[in-house]
């Protein structure tokens, strides 16, 4: 009988990130744009106009596939398969959650993926030098080439920016409720996060394995970052202890130990100032592969997890690792990675 609380194997792809050649793209082929009609503050027609204007200016062909969030995974999967068959790329149009869904399909199919961001924070786009203004991003993607970038995996799902357990998934759910009531802005997200943190009480008791290191911890949240820009804005980059850096060879984990209300207020102040790593009760470390499970794990134990702004339930143990198979992201060779300020993580 299989012990479901033992780590499950996950495919790590090719042995080296750059071992396989990037997918080919025929400049005459039709690009496939997967548009989350509900993402961002712009309506669907505005998004379509931005893309069509860029295509016309560059003499390129594009097929615009718009859908509601419930249909995004299916549409993205079909588009990725078509992209492979036609030697073209799939372009994700939306926020980090939409990008994650399209990236899941593109990574599995092995096609190149482009990005036109419409999210609140757009960490993935900004880290890779993609303009956050949609019209500029649309122009960039038409002149870009596939470049391998690192992705992480949490059980069967890949993630581009972050993954987490504990209070952070609650924070995301509260943030969506605040946005529905007060509108989409970074300050609304920050206020929602503060409200969630101040009422945080639930402790996770976790058994964590990273290589040969094994330990049991109590924490309010376990946050994993695959995005160096976000960690820099936290002020919580871990010390370099293994080869590579978060987002390029390794990932970073942050744990928040149980603390009182006054300490939580101080922690929020440190976070707002980009000095979270200096706050009491915060621990960070680098890793390539981590297995996490509750100390009392049964065959049916499930945990609420978040990845790139999406929330789901997953069966323990939770296997988090850097995948050796990269995602091929369309980037302009002349683009330099950019970093602009934000108030709170996506």
Automatic annotation (TrEMBL):
Ranges for domain DAGKc: 26-158
Any GO molecular function: kinase activity
Keywords, sorted A to Z: Kinase, Plasmid, Transferase
Xref: InterPro entries: ATP-NAD_kinase_N, Diacylglycerol_kinase_cat_dom, Lipid_Phosphate_FormReg, NAD/diacylglycerol_kinase_sf
Region (Disordered), start-end ranges: 1-23
Domain of life: Bacteria
PANTHER family found in the cross-reference section: SPHINGOSINE KINASE (PTHR12358), SPHINGOSINE KINASE RELATED PROTEIN (PTHR12358:SF54)
Name this polypeptide is given: Diacylglycerol kinase family protein
């Amino acid at each position: 009988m299989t012990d479901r609380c033992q780590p499950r194997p996950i495919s790590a792809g090719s042995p080296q990130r750059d071992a396989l050649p990037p997918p080919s793209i025929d400049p005459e082929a039709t690009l496939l744009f997967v548009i989350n009609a509900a993402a961002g503050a712009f309506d669907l027609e505005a998004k379509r106009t931005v893309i069509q204007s860029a295509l016309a200016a560059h003499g390129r062909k594009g097929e615009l596939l718009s859908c509601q969030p419930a249909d995004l995974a299916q549409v993205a999967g079909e588009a990725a398969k078509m992209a492979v068959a036609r030697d073209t790329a799939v372009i994700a149009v939306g926020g980090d959650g939409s990008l994650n869904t399209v990236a899941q399909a593109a990574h599995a199919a092995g096609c190149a993926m482009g990005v036109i961001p419409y999210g609140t924070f757009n960490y993935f786009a900004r880290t890779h030098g993609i303009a956050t203004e949609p019209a500029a991003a649309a122009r960039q993607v038409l002149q870009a080439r596939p470049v391998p970038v690192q992705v992480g995996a949490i059980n069967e799902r890949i993630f581009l920016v972050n993954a987490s357990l504990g209070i952070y998934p609650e924070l995301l759910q509260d943030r969506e409720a605040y946005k529905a009531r007060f509108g989409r802005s970074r300050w609304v997200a920050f206020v929602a996060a503060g409200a969630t943190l101040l009422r945080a009480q639930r402790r996770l008791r976790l058994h964590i394995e990273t290589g040969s290191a094994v330990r049991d911890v109590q924490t309010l949240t376990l946050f994993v970052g695959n995005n160096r820009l976000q960690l820099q804005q936290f002020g919580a980059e871990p010390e370099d202890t293994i080869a590579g850096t978060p987002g390029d060879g390794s990932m970073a984990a942050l744990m928040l130990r149980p603390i009182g209300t006054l300490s939580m207020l101080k922690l929020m102040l440190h976070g707002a100032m980009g000095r979270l790593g200096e706050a009491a009760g915060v621990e960070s470390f680098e890793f390539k592969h981590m297995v996490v499970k509750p100390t009392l794990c049964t065959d049916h134990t499930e945990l609420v997890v978040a990845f790139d702004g999406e929330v789901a339930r997953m069966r323990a143990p939770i296997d988090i690792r850097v995948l050796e198979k990269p995602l091929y992201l369309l980037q302009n060779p002349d683009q330099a990675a950019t970093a602009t300020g934000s108030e709170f993580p996506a």
